[in-house]
Amino acid sequence: MTGQIHNSRFDDDELRSALADVVAIPVTPFAEDGSVERGTYRALVRRLVDGGVRTLTPNGNTGEFYALDPEERRLVTELTMEEAGDEATVLVGVGHDLPTAVAAARHARDAGAHMVMVHQPVHPYVSQDGWVDYHRAVADAVPELGIVPYIRNPRLTGQRLADLGELCPNVIGAKYATPDAAAFAAFARDAGLERFVWVAGLAELYAPAYWAVGATGFTSGLVNVAPEVSLRMRDALRACDYPAAMEVWEQIRRFEELRAADQSADNVTVVKEALAALGLCRREVRPPSRVLPVERREEIAALVKAWSL
């Protein structure tokens, strides 16, 4: 049974509906001096909202979460709320050590956000009981908000998410990002297929396969570049029109393969390069990401041109 989320802006049904959609992960543009470029960030968020996107995740991995300092992460949250206003549901990424994650969740709440996505703990020693404890501490700190664990650990069992859901009724969804559709299907059913909203966390390339076995939303970095393309895939999947969804899949396949290559080494860089080709933001990223070589930039520019944006 799903617990009711007491939030002055969105009720439980609205939060769940927002997750069953394209969940956009905005990039974080940097100015020439390396700081967050506020005006460009606002413009990119505005472009997403004007393009029909209704769910935003500031401080996601496509936003270079781990390369931002705490003040910058707070800034990105605040800019998103100011620009999106009441036009989008905002799901703020939080993580790092537990006190930092809790403080970020409380900041998100105070800034007006509706949910938080809890990044997969990166500690080298993660027990399954400890995973539950970590997420429970964040969920208990902000009972007003919806909580969405970001699951990247293939060894985590669906039962552990079920246990967390029993303890914390505000855990309403899961972003599942292990590249195995069969494992996802089993995990979702072990955790509770109807209890949680299942978001395919590996974007458009995996969305059709995950949708077929239980996902009702998917994350996207591509949406920064081409909102209409991501929304077209969403609409096809909602209609169970898999041939139409696969037409979109074929259109964006090379772009997403470039992002996924070498264990996603250029995941963010490819998106920013496409935005640079459109004149929308600078291509610069922060280490450990890198700017692409010229020949790769030319390929991405050609892909974007072929989409007729």
Mean pLDDT: 94
Specify the overall morphology. Answer: globular
- Main beta sheet, described? 8 strands, parallel
Low-pLDDT regions? 1-10
Number of strands: 8
The proportion of residues in beta strands is 5-15%
Element-level helix/strand string = HEHEHEHEHEHEHEHEHHHH
Radius of gyration: 18 Å
Look at the helices and sheets and give the structural class.
Answer: alpha/beta
Number of discrete helical segments: 12
Distance between the termini: 43 Å
Strands ordered across the widest β-sheet:
1-8-7-6-5-4-3-2
Fraction in helix: 40-55%
Pfam families: DHDPS
Family: Belongs to the DapA family.
Keywords: Lyase
Protein name: Dihydrodipicolinate synthase family protein
